[in-house]
Design a protein that fits this description.
Elements lengths: L7 E2 L4 E3 L6 H12 L4 E5 L8 E7 L2 E7 L5 E5 L14 E3 L2 E3 L6 E3 L4 E3 L3 H5 L15 E5 L2 E5 L7 H5 L1 H10 L5 E12 L4 H9 L4 H4 L1 H7 L17 E6 L3 E6 L11 H18 L1 H7 L2 E6 L3 E4 L4 E7 L5 E10 L4 H15 L4 H15 L10 E3 L9 E2 L5 E4 L5 H14 L4 H6 L8 E2 L1
Parallel strand pairs: 21-23
Antiparallel strand pairs: 1-2, 2-20, 3-12, 4-5, 4-7, 5-6, 8-9, 9-10, 11-12, 13-19, 14-15, 14-22, 15-16, 16-17, 17-18, 18-19
Helix pairs in contact: 4-9, 5-12, 8-9
The structure holds FE2/S2 (inorganic) cluster and fe (ii) ion (FE2).
The site of FE2/S2 (inorganic) cluster has 9 residues, from loops.
C-alpha cells in the first residue's frame, strides 16, 4: 500500500500529482475509499413504490437499488453469482424479480436467489440458495430523502458520516415538502480523474469569473458582472470544510443569480424565507438564499441555486462518467421546476456552457500528468489557509470569503485519512486539523 503521508502535505494544501494519474493509487482508492465510504445512490423520490429500482455504481461496482414491499430500500451488486453476468440492464423500472439473461437464475427484490432453472434435474436439489444471493451493499440509509450506501458494515452511521455537513444541508432538505431530483440524469464521459470535479465543486470560487467569463457574459444574468473578475466581491460569502471531507462555498443572496429570468425563483425564495427562518434560524435562512458550490465526500457534488446535482463515477484513474440531475423543491410550481431544468441544462448539462468550460480544464488538469517528470511535481491549494479558523456560530472550519480553498484542503485531509487504511475507529480518535484562529 502506498504511504499517503507523502502524497498530501501541509494539512491538505499540497497534493502529489500522482494521485491524479497512477493506477496503483487508483486501485487503493477503490479499496480504501469506494469500498468503505458512504456513496450517494438515489433520492427516495426516484423509487417511491415497492418494486421500483434504479441501477447505479459504487466505485466501479454496479449496483441495483430497489424499494422493498415493506418500504425499505436495499441494494446489491448487479452481477450474477452463477457466472458473473450483469443481471439488470435497465437504468430504472419496476420489477417483481431480477432474472439473469444467461441461464435464468432469478433473484427477489431483496437480491436473494429465488428460482433456478432445472434445479431438481441438474443440481439434484443440492444448491444452497442462500449462499448465492446477489452480494449485498452492507448498509443502506437515508438522510431526509437522500439514499446512500456503503459496502463496509463497520462504517459509522450515515448521519455520523455526514456530520456537520448534514446541519448545513438541512438548509434545503428541510423545506416544506422536501426536495426531489428531476431526471432521468444526463450522462456523459469526461477524461479526467474523479477528484478534479469534486475539488472544483467543493471549493473553487476562484475559477468562476475567469474560466466562465464568456459563458457568464452570454447568459446575461445577475452573475454576468463576475466575467473576467471585473466585479467579483470576494468577501460576499464564505467557505466551510466540515470534518469528513465534505464542504461548500456560499455566495450570499445569489441563489437565483445564474438564472437569466430568475424572477419567479426570487419570489419563491422571498415567500419561503420566513418559513425557513422559523424552522432553522437566522444563519440557515441566509444560506437558503445563497448560491452554493458543494461536494459530499467522496464523489457527489451539487450547486444549490443553479440546482444541479452531480455524481462523478470513476472509470479508471483518468476517466469518469458524469450524471446530472436537477434539484428542486417538491412544492415548487411546475413552471418554476421547468425553468430550473432549463437553466441546469444550459449551464451544467452535458452540453452546458459552464460544464464544457469546466470539462476542458478538468481533462487538461488530468492529462498533463501523463508526463513522467510532470507527474513527480506537486499542486498547491493553500489559498486562504492563513485566514481560516473556527466560527462562533457555524460548525466546521470556516474560510473567509468565497475565493479560498478551505474545503479543498478538508477534502484532501479526509482522502489521506481513508487512504491510509486506518479503521474508522482509529481515524475518529485521532486529533484532527483545527486552526487556532477565530473568524467572524
Ligand atoms: S450467469 Fe446468471 S444464470 Fe448463469
Ligand atoms: Fe465551473
Amino acid at each position: 500500500m502506498k504511504d499517503v503521508t507523502k502524497l498530501i502535505l501541509e494539512d491538505g494544501a499540497v497534493q502529489d500529482r500522482r494521485i491524479y494519474w497512477d493506477q496503483d493509487i487508483y486501485e487503493q482508492e477503490l479499496e480504501q475509499i469506494f469500498a468503505r465510504a458512504w456513496q450517494f445512490l438515489a433520492h427516495e423520490s426516484q423509487i417511491p413504490n415497492a418494486g421500483d429500482f434504479i441501477t447505479t455504481r459504487m466505485g466501479e461496482d454496479n449496483v441495483i437499488v430497489a424499494r422493498q414491499p415493506d418500504g425499505k430500500i436495499k441494494a446489491f451488486i448487479n452481477s450474477c453469482p452463477h457466472r458473473g453476468n450483469v443481471v439488470c440492464h435497465a437504468d430504472t423500472g419496476n420489477a417483481r424479480a431480477f432474472t439473469c439473461a444467461y441461464h435464468g437464475w432469478a433473484f427477489g427484490l431483496d437480491g436473494e436467489l429465488a428460482t433456478v432453472p432445472l434445479e431438481h434435474d441438474a443440481y439434484y436439489d443440492a444448491i444452497e440458495r442462500p449462499r448465492y444471493a446477489m452480494h449485498p451493499v452492507a448498509k443502506v440509509e437515508s438522510y431526509k430523502g437522500l439514499v446512500f450506501g456503503t459496502f463496509d458494515a463497520g462504517a459509522p452511521s450515515l448521519r455520523d458520516y455526514l456530520g456537520d455537513m448534514a446541519w448545513y444541508m438541512d438548509t434545503f432538505l428541510d423545506v416544506p415538502g422536501g426536495i426531489e431530483l428531476l431526471g432521468p440524469p444526463m450522462k456523459s464521459i469526461l477524461n479526467c480523474n474523479w477528484k478534479v470535479p469534486v475539488e472544483n465543486f467543493i471549493a473553487d470560487g476562484y475559477h468562476v469569473g475567469w474560466a466562465h467569463a464568456a459563458a457568464l457574459k452570454a447568459i446575461e444574468s445577475p452573475l454576468s458582472p463576475l466575467a473576467g473578475n471585473q466585479a467579483y466581491d470576494v468577501n460576499s460569502g464564505l467557505q466551510v470544510a466540515t470534518r469528513g471531507g465534505h464542504g461548500f462555498g456560499v455566495i450570499w443572496d445569489a441563489a437565483a443569480a445564474i438564472h437569466p429570468d430568475g424572477g419567479a425563483y426570487r419570489e419563491w425564495l422571498a415567500k419561503r424565507t420566513p418559513i425557513m427562518r422559523e424552522r432553522l434560524g437566522e444563519w440557515r435562512s441566509r444560506f437558503y438564499n445563497g448560491h452554493w458550490d458543494a461536494s459530499i465526500f467522496p464523489n457527489c457534488s451539487f450547486l444549490y441555486g443553479t440546482n444541479t446535482w452531480k455524481l462523478w463515477l470513476p472509470m479508471g484513474p483518468h476517466n469518469i462518467e458524469v450524471w446530472t440531475w436537477t434539484l428542486v423543491e417538491k412544492d415548487m410550481p411546475a413552471e418554476l421546476k421547468q425553468m430550473m431544468v432549463a437553466t441546469n441544462m444550459m449551464t451544467f448539462g452535458t452540453a452546458g456552457m459552464l460544464e464544457t468550460d469546466d470539462g476542458e480544464n478538468m481533462e487538461q488538469c488530468t492529462g498533463s500528468n501523463r508526463g513522467w517528470v510532470t507527474r513527480r511535481g506537486k499542486l498547491y491549494s493553500g489559498m486562504g489557509q492563513v485566514r481560516e479558523g473556527v466560527h462562533a456560530e457555524l460548525p466546521g472550519i470556516v474560510g473567509k470569503g468565497i475565493v479560498c480553498e478551505t474545503s479543498n484542503r478538508g477534502f484532501y485531509r479526509r482522502w489521506a485519512e481513508l487512504m491510509s487504511g486506518r479503521s474508522w475507529e482509529e481515524i475518529s480518535r485521532e486529533p484532527h486539523y483545527a486552526p487556532n484562529r477565530e473568524v467572524a
